Structures are given as structure tokens and as C-alpha cells.
Model the fold of this input.
Amino acid sequence: MIGRLNGKLVEKQPPLIVIECFGVGYEVEAPMSTICDLPELGSSVTLFTHHHIRDDANLLFGFLTTKERELFRVLTKVNGVGNRMALTILSGVSIGEFVRVVKNDQWQQLTSLPGVGRKTAERILVEVRDRLDSFNENFGIDNSKVNVQNDAILGLVSLGYKKNEAVKFVEKANPDIYTSQEIIRQVLKNVLSKDTD
Done:
């Protein structure tokens, strides 16, 4: 199996790129998150790859980070999510955003991506959620910050706000705030100042 490629970037036609290694050009499919960060054509590049062998094809998928590759592999294990849909999801949301979507049960954000319907989005959330704790460690997500945000959302819901409103308010809060009480205070202050405008 091919796990990594190091060579010269010779072609970039999203989602396809070609990397030349010792005179051989490898066709690699990559998400836009990787393609946007690639260097100029002719530059040296290293990609972490997922090698998928089928009866009718021998496919390579490439990623700039091992975290992206790991998330791709997690997604392709979900029933109904193939390689193409996993690439679409990686192209549309960052790793941190994806973790937040799963944590906050925001399947609607996934349905805004091409080809992802409601049933598939809900299935992704259900099947990935069980692995989320180890997932956060693997992806370097700050669990304490996620927990603080979740507590703030629950606090706002208990004050009468709808969950989707609470999530939006918390997302807009100052990222340097470290306690749920401070986040709630800031949200209420923002809401009150808007009401008095």
C-alpha cells in the first residue's frame, strides 16, 4: 500500500493532482482544503495518501496532514459515505468545524454540502459520535474549550433560547473567554445592546 508520496507537483486540476516521483506521475485526488494549500507547480510536495484498491480501479487520495487523512478514513467507514462524499465533506468543513458539528448535533451544516442529504448527515453524526472522545485527542481539539461552549449553549437554552440560536450566539462569542458563565454574560450583553439599538 502507498502511504506517502514525496515528489514534484506537475499538475493541478481539482480534485485531481499529479505528483511526479522518480519519473512516474501519480494521479491523486485531494480535498480542496489540501489543494488550496499546495505550492506552485514544479515545487516539491509531500502528501499522506490513502490507497484504495477496487476490482475496477486503483485509487490514491492525498492529504497535506495525517489528521485530514484520518478524518477521511473515519468518514469512509460510515454507511453510505464513499470516497467522493468524504472528499466533499473535507473540502467544505475544517476538522475543528466537523468536530463542533458532531458535538452540537448540527446535521444541517452537512446538508449544505453537495450530495449530502439529511439521512446521510444524521447517520454521519450518529456513527462518528461514539468515537468522538478519542477523535478529539487524535485531532488535537481542545476538549475543555468544546465542553465550555457546550455548557454555555445548555445555559442559554435553559434561559429560553432555541438551541440553534444559542449555538450561533456562542460561536460569535470572544474565543479568548474560558468559562461558560463569561460566554453567557457576553451573549446576553450583545443581545441586550441589539435590542436597545
User: Anything to note?
Assistant: The first helix runs from residue 32 to 35.
